[in-house]
Amino acid sequence: MNILWFIPTHGDGRYLGSSKGARQADYPYFKQIAQAADQLGYTGVLLPTGRSCEDPWLTAAALAAETTHLKFLVALRPGLMQPSVAARMTSTLDRLSGGRLLINVVAGGSKEELAGDGLFIPHDERYEQTEEFLTIWKRLLKGENVQFEGKHLQAQNGRLLFPPVQTPHPPVFFGGSSEAGIQAAAKHTDVYLTWGEPPTQVKEKIAQVKKQAEKEGRTVKFGIRLHVIVRETEEEAWQAAEHLIHHLDQETIDEAQKALQGMDSVGQKRMVELHQGNKDKLEISPNLWAGIGLVRGGAGTALVGDPNTIAERIVEYQSLGIDTFIFSGYPHLEEAYYLAELVFPLLPFKRNGDVGLRVPAGEIIGNNYFPDTTSTASSS
Q1: Which is an annotated GO molecular function term of this record (predicted)?
Q2: Domain interval for residue 320
Q3: E strands in the chain
């Protein structure tokens, strides 16, 4: 099991949809969170991408020098850069960080933002372009001399002189709920990412991706992106969830939902459908709360509960085939500690930098029994 945290380069705070309790999105704060995650034993951190965020590559490069074990899941944006440039950036950051780079392929987003970046390709064609991009990018990182003639991209005598530390390339993470997205992921991803949908929906998506990957002669791993609110008691956790949206009014929700519904992302539409902008029906599955998605794009659900309950829900997703969990919480510094201190000891999870397990041999979590075996974290 791999557990990653989140660096909030677009801002952080104690409340959603309000400037009250907001924190400055600056480097000293990012450094605090990254070093806390490193010391607490998280596998790595995700850095967001978009015009409202600091650049993830530059931020990761700076934070890599401030940490020891932490890996950095950084966005690669086909269409916004050439694959040769991306390959050089990948190789450099992987070398400078000592092999601690993970790649998060982001093919889409807001149509308005993409247009502002000069990208006007329709949804499905963006994934066609992404497939061509990753084909060239991978071949360069493998050390090949690349000749490529595609619909969207070309390369003549492409070469990469300095190889990455990880071979053949840093692990590729890829999300996409549309048919075109799943097809591209099946061909190229090492870890397929889904946002935090209810377990039944996640199970269906995993089966769909596995089937498509088998057609490509490949196997892929699976990850999930969730927020988390964990407290010592169930009551305290739900109070914290309500506290988070305490200053959120219906006008702010409606305005945010209008913007989110204008996106052409199938995954985003699935997130919106979970709550439909209704503040009164937010527990969409046991301990799965959709309150964050009322105003936040992307991952909009959180696991809410006491430590044993949160551990049970994580293990439930793990039983479906999920082995990478990317969590976040508001504020991100405090919530990183809550999750690590209260839940990590209850999971079959080897912390980065540790030797040995934190879960006692023979420990029982709900109905799940973990025998006395040695566990190691995978490379991704």
Answers
A1: alkanesulfonate monooxygenase activity
A2: 2-250+297-369
A3: 2-6, 12-13, 22-23, 44-46, 71-76, 101-105, 146-149, 154-158, 172-175, 191-195, 221-230, 283-285, 288-289, 302-305, 322-328, 364-365, 368-369
